[in-house]
Amino acid sequence: MKFRILSYLFFFIGCLDLLVKILYGNIFSDFTEDYYEIANPILVFTPVLFFSIGGVFLKESKVNMSIENFGTSRLKYYSPQFICLAVVVLIFLFFTFNAQINMENRGIDFGFSFLNQEASFDMQFSLMDYDGQDPYWWAYVVALLNTLLVAVLGIIFCTIIGVIIGIARLSPNFLIRNSAAWYVEFFRNIPLLLQIFFWYYAALRALPLPQDATPLFGVTYLTIKGYYMPAFIWNNLNIFIYSLMAALIAIIFVRYYAIKLRDTEGKQLPVFYISIILLIFLPLLAFLFGGVSLIFELPVLKQLSATSFIYDGGIAVPPELIALTLALSLYTATFVAECVRAGIQGISKGQKEAAASLGLTPNQVLKLVIMPQALRIIIPPTTNQYLNLTKNSSLAAAIAYPDLVLVFAGTALMQTGRAIEIVSITMLTYLSISLAIAALMNWYNKMIEIKEK
Amino acid sequence: MFNLIKRFTSFVAMIAVLFAFTTETMAAKKSKTLKNTQKKGFVRCGVSQGLPGFSNADASGNWTGIDVDVCRAVAAAVLGDANKVKFTPLSAKERFTALTSGEIDILSRNTTWTLSRDADIGLTFVGVNFYDGQGFMVRKSSGITSTSQFKDGISACTNIGTTTELNMRDFFNSRGISYEPVAFEKADEVVAAYDAGRCDTYTTDKSGLAAQRTKMSNPDEHIVLPETVSKEPLGPVVRQGDSVWEDIVRWSLNTMIEAEEYGITSANADSMKTSDNPAIKRLVGAEGELGAAFGLDNDWSLRIIKQVGNYGESYKRNIADTGILPDRGPNELWTKGGILYVPPAR
Amino acid sequence: MMNKFTFLNPDRSNISSVLITGIFFITIGILDVLLNTFFKLNIISFLPSKISFITPFILGIIGFNLIRIEYTGIKFIDVINKHINPSNFNAALTLIIIFLIIKAIPPSLSWMILDANISGDTKEACTGTGACWTYIKVWFKRFMYGMYPNEQHWRINTAFLLVIALGTFGLFATEKMKKFLALYYVLIYPILAFMIIYYLISGGYFGLEWIETGAWGGLSLTFIVSFFCLIFCFPLGMILALGRRSSLPAVRYVSIGYIEFWRGVPLITVLFMSSVMFPMFLPEDFFMDKLVRVIIAITLFEGAYCAEVIRGGLQSLPRGQYDAAKSLGMGYWKMHIFVILPQALKLVIPGICNTFLALVKDTPLIFVVGLAEIAGMLALAKTNPKWLGFAMEGYIFAAIIFWIICYAMSKYSYNLEAKYKTER
């Protein structure tokens, strides 16, 4: 009992120390002016010391588990931990010590105040308003949004392609199965950087100039300067959104009713067709009577000079974004296809045979019996692949797409020279995204895991 | 009594050791870079990854250019042989960190001298070896002959992390033109993008435009527009904190320029030892003890002029004769209408 | 719906007529696309253009539907029916794939092989409309060896041969030496390989010229980096995996923190950190070569992934092994070295192969920090004024090389996995 109180006391002191250090800086700096270079880093690590001592006391306060600790003494239990912690702390001290000396000698400051400075550079493509007069932290936010845009687009496309290819690999059709297999083998074994280079420098550079481009679907133009699409200009967009939401709610009710009907009376409602009709009908009502109107702003060829043209109006998708999304989706789709295939093959054959003996068609077997069980196996590795896609989107630094690495760890780093701060912020951003997705996946796993008795 | 003597001697010994230690470190701080360079036997010079006229390597690995000549001048002054230089090609991203980390001792990579670079990141600019300005390059067939003809929506290619990126923004904003910046990290990629038609114009220092034009598929198809939109004084950079090394590099460059002012060339440098002009005699080391201020012998400036040549010779063989920029423009001596004016060596 | 037209309904009774009409339709459809692609002929040009586009497709579908008979007795038709023609949807997809193959393969073949040039030495030798493999031939040595001087290429070749020979030592080991195999691979082999590469490729001793690491490049640099990273990250991964499974909380949390950190950041930021931050963290005079910094960064990065793979292997061992070893009185280290690790390492070899594959595919990234391996050499060759405009050939060449290497390795690791699965 005494040990436990002592341990909590040390934890408390450690927390206090940490808070004081974060909020007020090192309050002992007056006393250590002379020993600044040597003592300061050590003083930074006192919270670690307090927490470790608290941890030791906590361990001691619990039941002595010497048998589990390989039947040995306290010494053999605590010394490896002490050595391990000491090594880690010494490494950090060494680095901090050197960094401080180096920065002092060169006259470089360490601090995050540069984030409020004006950025003075423009970005080629941004989802939100960004101008050179905005501070660096806004440039960081906009660049992060660009990264997330590539990640979301890539995830959507790679899922669609991956699921199709994965199911195709299990088809009884010889040609389809082998074409899918060759697709997977081909795109999986070429490095992603080379694929991005190929798409951007070789394929997209071969596109025609704006004045020579032939329209796809009549109104969109695929040129070397980008993909120009008509922009949607909505009038009374909120009414349209309400109609969509109303349609979705109606579909949910219809589904609920259909399930109840099936359970009680055994009748089947064609839910799919009803949903489609609802989705088309309700927004149509909004168009006709709700005052919602949609104008397309078409891209129009504008002459800038005797030989250079661009398309004015509409949405311009930069070729960098196209190349990056294409390369990322095709590459990650191969891994997603393998996950889907492994998931579907992991369902025992007995399920398929039992479903067939009940008279279900192959489509119904896939939809009602196989997929719900297979999803349990498919989703964890697929989420891992999504994470890999997000991390691989940092390769935009090799082509001129303004994502987080190129804008923040590229331009901002070169303009301000604050290498340590900027690279650590970038790494921490990616780390947070990874940890968030991993935590989400753990929660999902716990939710759907088969509760065994 | 014996105890007292023992204590006293150990005390004196400790003081002596401390004193020696501090003076050693203090003296070493006088110019660590110079000492290390002399110990290694070569000057470590950071250059570009291939810019004709400034620093470019040929197929057998020989570097030439006016930036290269600055490093060779320092090597001639400090080590006696202008060829004792090790060149490290650096991208725009690593150039400053390579210098601050100690990988190189001089950064001679057509770097623009700006306030933030001088004051904020631990570097010192030691002079200007090329006065330049930023310009725009367009295709002749586009019919544009002046930057006032730029229209909204123009796309401009440039390098990231350079002053050109920032100046470009200032230029287009001051004229109210909306533009699309396409910024790559490597200069070769910028040139390739402009050449393929991805951008309508390519912007960087005018000397860089002239140099990169030689690497395009059809150099005659492109013109450099006459307007200069910024000041780009390019010069060598060293680390902050080593003032002796700073002075050596600064005065090596100044020697080259001042030699041209007095008409000393690599051919007639030896004969100038018997000149009537005391300024010339000081420059060739026949008079005065200028080298001792840096810890070098007195022939340091003579070696620079003989092995590398004066500024005019360097410019001529690297930039004028290769056809990049035959006209020296502002890079002419102040006595001949340019703005090269260096403090006197005395 | 097709069943309503009974005369179209394939049945065993009208087998010969149905078969003949079906095969006739299919051949017409495929022939039309073939003629269109190769000879630019259009045998149904009497129809308007949009319909003549769809006609071969519709003809093919009708043909396939007609020959879909349950059991004809003719082996060829049965095989086709079972594999390509189980339903209308499948027949449509098959036709689409056949048409895509016919439309896509001949142009690429003609570009790559038939119209291509490979002889000659200068840009003028590339006269055809196809690929210019002359460009690859001229730059081949650069792509393989980087800026390494031509006369010294034998050093790289001998170094690689020696390293591979030493690596296959395990195949020829006698029974007595098998005990020390693990020790050999984890301790002795890395040191030997390092010394070979240091003395042979870097040089400076025994009369060999010293060549700085800035001159190394091309595919050989890719191999050197991947190889070094693999042999150094394997011991690191092992230590981390053991640490993560340990019952000492401090050790476990430090391992978990390390693994989660390095697995959560992209490799490109790690490389930036190594080239831009490392110099700040080292003492003023201590200067590390750029290649060494990059190898250290990649090793730390891949060590986390190796640790996860090895941990999987450790976890799949039955608990009985641990209990039996403990009951014999073995301590922690004795148990692991003699009982656990030999079994676990055998299980994780396919996983390590996969990690190595991922490493080889990630190595082109070091191009971004300035080391000129094959992607860097491609960029250099692409912008050389004498050889402008051949970017496509360069990328296809690099893609083919990587594809061959990675495909071979993935097949090898697949076979290994199958072999070890059956052994257990």
Rounded to an integer, what's the Rg of chain A over CA atoms? 30 Å
Strand element count of chain B: 12
Unreliably modeled segments of chain A: none
Q: Helical stretch count of chain A?
A: 14
Strand content of chain B: 15-25%
Low-confidence segments of chain B, given as residue ranges, are 20-29
Task: Please give a structural write-up.
- The complex is a heterotrimer of chains A (453), B (346) and C (424).
- With 453 residues, chain A is an alpha+beta fold.
- Among the domains of chain A are: 2-108; 136-230 and 298-403, MetI-like fold (Orthogonal Bundle).
- Helix content of chain A is 66%, strand content 7%.
- In chain A, the strands form three sheets. In chain A, strands 1-2-3-8 form a four-stranded antiparallel sheet.
- In chain A, strand 6 (300-303) and strand 7 form a beta hairpin.
- In chain A, helix 2 (36-44) crosses helix 4 and helix 6 crosses helix 10.
- Chain A is globular.
- Among the domains of chain B are: 1-28; 133-232, 3-Layer(aba) Sandwich (D-Maltodextrin-Binding Protein, domain 2).
- In chain B, 39% of the residues lie in helices and 18% in strands.
- Chain B contains twelve helices and twelve strands.
- The termini of chain B are far apart.
- Chain C has 424 residues and is an all-alpha fold.
- Chain C folds into two domains: 2-114; 134-148 and 211-423, MetI-like fold (Orthogonal Bundle).
- The longest helix of chain C is centred in the C-terminal third of the chain and has 33 residues, at 391-423.
- Chain C is extended, with a radius of gyration of 30 Å.
- In chain C, 35% of the residues are buried.
- Classes of the chains: A alpha+beta (453), B alpha/beta (346), C mainly alpha (424).
- Chains A and C meet through helix 3, helix 4, helix 6, helix 7 and helix 13 of A and helix 4, helix 9, helix 10, helix 13 and helix 14 of C.
